[in-house]
Amino acid sequence: MALPSSPTDFTLAEARDALRARAISSTELTSAFVSQVAAARPLNAFITETPERALEMAAASDVRLSAGEARPLEGLPLAIKDLFCTRGVRTTAASRILDNFVPPYESTVTQNLWDAGAVLLGKTNMDEFAMGSSNETSHFNPVVNPWRARNSNQSVVPGGSSGGSAAAVAGRLCLGATGTDTGGSIRQPAALTGVVGLKPTYGRCSRWGIVAFASSLDQAGPMARTVRDAAILLRAMASVDPKDSTSVDVPVPDYEHEIEAGVKGLRVGVPKEYRSDGAPSEIDRLWTKGIGWMRSEGAEIVDISLPHTKYALPAYYIVAPAEASSNLARYDGVRYGHRAADVRDVSDLYERSRAEGFGAEVRRRVLIGCYVLSAGYYDAYYVRAQKVRTLIARDFVKAFERCDVLLTPSTPGPAFALGEKTADPVSMYLNDVFTVPVNLAGLPAVSVPAGLTTDGLPLGLQVIGKAFDEQLVLRVARSIERAAGFDATPNAWWRAA
């Protein structure tokens, strides 16, 4: 088989086939990515690199490959978001409070990946505790998007919170990566970096061993260069888990099997509420182009309404901080994590450990969460937000009576400059306006790179599906990918940095 000029140019599917054909060894492939990760440190995509472990895992995979005992992901180097606990490898959630935490256990999702033969390259940078839309809240400094606007030296954000994973995939630092999506944290950075990002149905992947942000919203998913690669990764990641009561016991199909089936005869819904007055005209043009692709491929376009969409963002920013304030109560400086020195008493220990350990955005959301759950405000805010969430979910149920999938933009705009929105939290929160409704309803959705702005920055289209219908979502996404023919890559400016 023909090999690319560099092993790091393989897609995950191509690398899988090359390894099985013995055209390349896992050690050779992994060594190339280890070197690529080291050369790309100006991107700050990784918090912890694990080159020795990667090469050990690759050597073990080569033994299996030689013996004809290859597992589904045998010898394929991946990056893991630093929200997934990895046994014996530091897991920080990009926070000072977990700066030196080394878990004695493995998350279910990452264990599934290792059981499938994958190789660990390292842990990727992210927004602290997954709270952010630009990867600028990390205790370990921001991730830089591998892309830059045409004829510009200005660094732009990769999106968040899974910005490190997105940058690693876009920069050819790994074959694929894990992310987590609470309000768009896989799809939004995928769109801003020109990669594929899939948020599965809530319950499709176990949350056990993933550092919790908002337990009723968090969901793990894959980030990859192609739709096929995302399908391959999801099959390995997904499983029912007795350790996670919210994981659902449903069959995990071979997502790759029907990916080329096309969209002929499908009904593709276009929700009018996703047309934002403030969005750049390029977003609307790309959406219109995507609708045209679907129509030319034989799909029926159906105009639908999701009337409660406008309430999704405010409802989300009540529910998510409320759950975060509860989940983050465990970080008190007692059992593990950062512990303040020279404290007077136990109250001083709690207060100072948390004040020193949490960054500004995390403190903001914890305070909001405590407020909306407090006596006198619980019914006015949290209970009402949950009622709105039910209405949003009901909108999707009604929409899917008339269509099979929905097609929308992934984000309200392209990547923006580092520091541009950090002083305005509300402006930052608005980056999630197209992704948040899906999380509130617990549905699957994928962002597919579909075009570039006039300045040369990536834009994505989002496909939303019915619960546990990732197979159809990926099939439609593959049709968009094929029609868009997106093959642009970053210019690797960081190699000269």
Structure notes:
It is globular and about 65 Å long. About 35% of the residues lie in helices and about 10% in strands. The longest helix has 22 residues, at about 380-400. With about 500 residues, it is of the alpha/beta class.
Class by alpha and beta content: alpha/beta
Reading side by side through the largest sheet, how are the strands ordered? 4-6-5-10-11-9-7-8
Specify Rg, calculated over alpha carbons.
Answer: 21 Å
| Mean pLDDT reading | 95
Molecular shape: globular
Q: In total, how many beta strands?
A: 11
Q: What descriptors fit this protein?
A:
single chain, 497 residues, alpha/beta, eight-stranded mixed beta sheet, three-stranded mixed beta sheet, 15 helices, 11 strands, 36% helix
Summarize the entry for a quick read:
With 497 residues, the protein is α/β, with parallel strands linked by helices.
Describe the SSE topology:
Elements: H1 12-20, H2 26-39, E1 46-49, H3 51-66, E2 77-81, H4 108-115, E3 119-124, H5 163-170, E4 176-180, H6 187-193, E5 196-199, E6 220-224, H7 227-237, E7 267-271, H8 281-296, E8 300-304, H9 312-327, H10 346-357, H11 360-373, H12 378-399, E9 405-409, H13 425-429, H14 436-441, E10 445-452, E11 458-464, H15 470-484
